[in-house]
Amino acid sequence: MKRAFVTGITGQDGSYLTELLLAKGYEVHGLVRRSSTFNRGRIEPLYLNAKGEKVPLYLHYGDLSDSGNLFALLRKIDPQEVYNLGAQSHVKVSFETPEYTSDVNAIGTVRLLEAIRQLDLDARFYQASSSELYGKTSALKQDESTPFHPRSPYGFAKLMAYWATVNYRESYGMFASNGILFNHESPRRGEGFVTRKITISLARILAGLDKELRLGNLDAKRDWGFAGDFTELIWRILQHKEADDFVIATGETHSVREFLQEAFSYKGLDWQKYVKIDPAYMRPAEVDYLCGDSAKAQRLLGWTPKVKFKELVRMMVDADIKELQSKPMARQISPNP
Ligand code: NAP
Ligand code: F7E
To answer: Per residue in 144-153, is it b (16+ CB within 10 Å) or e — as a string?
Structure first.
């Protein structure tokens, strides 16, 4: 049985990837942070299989900022595959916590790579790189050869992690690969990201709980895919015959305004009656436009994205309406970044 070590297991991608790895017969070990409130909601449904039996899923306390912890865990688990999905993943928050974001996202990656190297583990390493590396780009489509120009502490920290991964591959012959993933969303998306903020808010407006939705820049364009599709690729990147870097994207771009239009019109509402622009949600520097070219992944990993924009928006809207109906008064929306 293959053993995988997953950082960021409690997050959106961590939960989809764990589901996939368990279905493929892996033993999965996840790094979890201690927090004052329990945050295992996304992985709780995975503890038992369809027959009600316990699955080989093990959680270990730790943190990407703690080298000793990472060394001890990797020594004990001795995984064949390491997926580094853990990160302070919010771009706007990274402007407020640049040092912390750099420590976790950049140095945290080096800590993992260094532990694998020093322990001489025979482990393949996946780094969750991001389209935020491209930032202020003039390329109509971004691929593996497009120059990087990050626009936030999140972006520059992920840039260092990207290059650390490439360097450990080139210097030490390690199987270390980057997936440069464009935005991917789902009903499990964090509530502070714009797509989920919109779909939660729409569900609350429909239920009569909210009257308005406060947002920042509606002109930004993103290449939004479905997280369930993308995590299959994360796994395939580590099964490829050699370590390499791959762009994962749908190749279609839409503005935040188009997302709003699609979501609200699906439920027969005019978004312009509800949305207020609030400078609190603007960023010191913005990434205006992203649209990925994943031809390399399609050619070498045999993959095409399945879920299209409209289907993704509707899936998220329907899921949030259903969730609100199942616990009507339970949801207190907190100020989202
Ligand atoms: P997410 O839902 O925000 O999950 C982030 C995960 O990282 C959570 O499990 C979180 O744990 C964990 N984490 C945060 N700080 C940590 C620390 N100091 N030590 C250990 N773990 C820590 O993110 P996601 O959307 O699943 O994204 C997964 C990865 O892909 C991230 O690295 C993200 O930057 C990157 N990425 C995401 C996208 C996207 O569109 N989703 C695109 C490109 C790249 P808690 O639950 O305890 O907070
Ligand atoms: O913002 C605009 C905002 O926070 C998208 C992360 O997963 O994808 C994600 O980063 C756009 C931006 O995602 C609000 O200004 C308007 O232009 O949903 P987001 P992101 O910044 O693209 C990349 C690939 C990652 O790697 C990251 O980890 O929407 N926007 N109004 C808003 N954004 C937020 N969050 N909240 C607003 O009210």
So the answer is: eebebebbbb
CATH number at residue 88: 3.40.50.720
207 in any annotated domain: no
Rg of the chain over Cα atoms, rounded to whole angstroms, equals 20
Per-residue CA distances from 293 to 148, 161, 162, 183 (Å)? 15, 21, 18, 13
Q: Is residue 263 part of a domain?
A: no
Band of pLDDT at residue 159, cut at 50, 70 and 90: very high
DSSP 48-90: B-TTSPBPSEEEEE--TT-HHHHHHHHHHH--SEEEE--S---
Pocket test for ligand 2, best of 90, 91, 95 (most atoms within 8 A of CB): 91
Token readout for 97 is 């916590």
Count each helix (H run) and each strand (E run) in the chain, helices first: 11, 13
Closest CA to 264 of 212, 190, 222: 212
Tokens describing residue 41: 């909601």
Span from the CA of 181 to the centroid of ligand 1 (angstroms):
13
Assess whether the C-beta atom of 222 lies below 6 angstroms from ligand 2.
yes
Top pLDDT among 39 and 296 is at 296
Decide if pLDDT at 308 tops 80. yes
What is residue 50's predicted lDDT score, i.e. its pLDDT?
A: 86
Does any domain span residue 210? no
Q: Provide, rounded to the nearest whole percent, the portion of the chain with pLDDT above 70.
A: 97
Whether 264 and 202 have beta carbons less than 8 Å apart is answered as yes
Give residue for tokens 């820049």: 217
Active site residue 289: no
In which domain, by residue range, is 176 found?
A: 3-185+224-248
Q: Is 132 part of the annotated catalytic residue set?
A: yes
Query: What domain count does the chain have?
Result: 1
pTM for the structure as a whole = 0.97
Q: Ligand 1 atom 28: the closest Cα is on which residue?
A: 85
